[in-house]
Structures are given as C-alpha cells and as structure tokens.
Amino acid sequence: MNLIEHLKKIYDKNNKPFLIYQNSELKFSDIINEDQINLDIIKQGDVVALIGDFNAPSISILLRLIDLKTIIVPLTIETKNTHEYFFESALVDVIIHNGKIKRRKHNKNHILITNLRQKSHSGLILFSTGTTGRPKAILHDMTMFLERFKTPRPTLKMINFLLFDHIGGINTLLHTIFNRGVVVAPTDRNVDSILENCAKYKVEVLPTTPTFLRLMLLSGAVPSKIPESLKIITYGTERMDQSTLDELCKLLPNVDFRQTYGMSELGIVRVKSKSRNSLYMKIGGEGVETKIENKVLKILSKTRMTGYLNAESPFSEDGWYDTQDIVEEQNGFIKITGRIGDVINVGGLKFMASEVERVALMYPDVGLVKAYAKDNPLTGQHVEILINSVSKNIIDKQTIKNHFSSHLPPHMVPKRIIFDEMKISHRFKKI
C-alpha cells in the first residue's frame, strides 16, 4: 500500500483542515506539498532517526519514509542528551533534523532488522522510558502496525499532547489521518498552553497522563479554564489515583474520563472503562488476549513488537508478555494497583507504594507524591516518601507523620518524609 496515495483518496472529499499548528490550519494536501527535503540519499531498509514533532514538515517526512519502506526512529529534542545512545542502540543509518540529512556510518546489523528488509516492510523503533535500566529499543513492523487503522472508526478533534517519540502520540496521529480527523499540535505542553489551545480550537479530546491532570488541578485551572467543547479526557502511561479521578469527575461533570492502556512493546490495545469515575477497566479487543497469574497481568497481542534490538526477548515461548502490572479483579474488570517493582517488603509484610501515596494525598496541601522502598538493615526495607506541596505553605512534618500513623499500620508509615520539587519527565510522568 502506498500510504500517501491512500490517504490522499481519503481526504479528497474532505475540505476541512487536517492539522492545526502555530495558528495555521493546514489541509492534508498542504502537508504533502510542504517544502520537501530531498530524500534521494535514503535507501529502502535504512534505519532513519527523525528528530521532530507533530508539525507539517515532520509529518510529511514521516509519511514519505513509510512509503520508502524505511525503519523510522521518531525522536524529540527533549531527549537530545540520549540521542547518541539511541542512534547506537537502533543501528541508525540516517539522521534527519531541521531539514538536514546526515548519513551515519556503522558496520552493525541485527537479525530483526534484516528480516524486515527481506520482507520489504517499513519499521518503527521506539524506546522504553528506561525507569528500570537503560532504555530498550523496541522494533515494530510498521506495515503490520498500520493494519489496525484500516477499519474506519469515529474521530473527534484531538490535541496531540503525547509526544512524537511516544506510541500514544503516533497512534493519535495515525488514527486521525486514517479517519479524516483534525489534530491540534501544541507548541508548548504546559497546563496553560494546552488549555488555551483546547479553548481556541474547540478541542473535543485531550489524551494525557495522570500527572498532567494532577498538575491541572493544582494550577487552579479546573474547572474555570476547561472549554465547553472538551468531551473526553483520556489518561494512561502511569497509574491514576482514585482521589484525583474523583475530584476531576466532580469538577467536570460533562466530561467523560476514559482510561487507556498500552505499552510500546504491545502496541495500543483497546480498553473499556467500567465508568467515568472508576479505575476498573476491560482490556482486550481483536487480536488481544489477557490472563492474570498471581495477580500479575499478562497479555498476548497480535500487534506486539518483533523484539528488542538491545535486550533479550521478554515474551514467553507461546508469546505472552508479562506486563509486571499488579491488578485487582472485580466482575470481569481489572484495576492496576501498581507494578511488581512498587511492592515494598517491610519485615516480610508486603504492600504497594500506591497505598502510602493514597493516604498522603488525603492530607491538605499535598500535591504530587511518590512513595518508594529503601534498604533497611533490620527490616529489609522501609518506606520513604517525596511530597510536593500545593502552595508555599509549609507542611508540619510531625503533623503529617501523625496523619500517616492514624491511617496506616506501623510497618507502612514512612520512616522519612522529604519535601521537595517532584521530578517530571518530558512525557509528564513522575520520575
């Protein structure tokens, strides 16, 4: 399938803009006719790092690279300090940045890349966040990846909050394109800018993260700066806490809140929330199976990656992926309570860090929190917690200690409370 020709046919009957960026409304034809750089030095099967964003030049080049049957590594300027590691791990042949093309020499190959080249398929390489080690290079067969978008689905005007190097951002773009939708590409991803763009362009769907939604609440922007056009807010990429969801649902009664679930390793999987104010959901859909073993979610997906380029395969012999997510079941729905790495063991008593965070969020003036385990010579581990206060008001340490003691058993009470700014990644996740 020639992707650009296919999409041109889709948009031939559509006179509305496809992309809104920097106060410009662009039709799909405008994107394709964008002042194009010469890609003649790029060969079929090349691994191409494209450093960009959801703007007209980057989208145009991305689509052309798919049609050239290259293996694309979308990157953003926010991760420039790790680009050399990405280039090495992905075996990048060509780098495109700011309209300039540079060929990179190396003598390495990988069997998974060779297999894609032999099939004359385009590819997609994404990187994990690296929270448990060095980021992993995740290879997808882009030709197969695109198959899921061929079934027409309803689309609303969306703002592409998730980034160019994120599977959720790529999914938003492709879903929009294949369904003659409209995507708003923000130039800044802070609370004020995102909400201003939502209001200005009558955005209907905001896909985001729990941390960003928490920041929205803390900023005081909810509900006063939420436009009437906004119908749906989706959240994913990290665990949502119930108190934040409850507050959002109370302040925004006309907005539908929907949980998403996906990993770069698995592709985007279909999710159905039990209700707008519930953290319980169903995961599945065509080509996806789930099972729970020892409270841990495992997924079998036809849209999964072909494998890692710099790590061993995480799949079982029969293709199941261990998500490391610990879940609770309720009437056919599941709720993620944390990850295996979030389990804290104090003297043989195990619990989730999220339980300590939940209690912290009950305390006035507490904004963002992160509980974690620290080694302890007597009990094996103990709890510490980082707290970011809502205002400049100083939280009394003894009073909040008493708060923890009154709501938690002794082994779950934090031994150390740190008041400091929370580190947040460029993808708006707590670090």
Describe what this molecule looks like in 3D.
The protein has twelve helices and 26 strands. By secondary structure, it is α/β, with parallel strands linked by helices. Strands 6-5-3-4-7-8-19 form a seven-stranded mixed beta sheet, sandwiched between helices. The mean pLDDT is 91.
Strands, helices and their partners?
Elements lengths: L2 H9 L7 E3 L2 E3 L1 H5 L14 E5 L4 H12 L3 E5 L7 H8 L3 E4 L2 E4 L7 H9 L3 E5 L9 E5 H4 L12 E2 L7 H12 L4 E3 L5 H10 L4 E4 L1 H10 L12 E4 L6 H10 L4 E4 L1 E3 L3 E7 L7 E4 L3 E6 L2 E6 L5 E2 L12 E10 L2 E7 L3 E4 L2 E4 H9 L4 E11 L3 E10 L7 H11 L8 E4 L12
Which descriptors would you attach to this protein?
431 residues; alpha/beta; Rossmann fold; 7-stranded mixed β-sheet; 4-stranded mixed β-sheet; 12 helices; 25% helix
Structure summarized in a few sentences:
The protein has helices at 3-11, 28-32, 56-67, 83-90, 111-119, 142-145, 167-178, 191-200, 210-219, 242-251, 353-361, 397-407, and strands at residues 19-21, 24-26, 47-51, 71-75, 94-97, 100-103, 123-127, 137-141, 158-159, 183-185, 205-208, 232-235, 256-259, 261-263, 267-273, 281-284, 288-293, 296-301, 307-308, 321-330, 333-339, 343-346, 349-352, 366-376, 380-389, 416-419. The protein is α/β, with parallel strands linked by helices and 431 residues long.
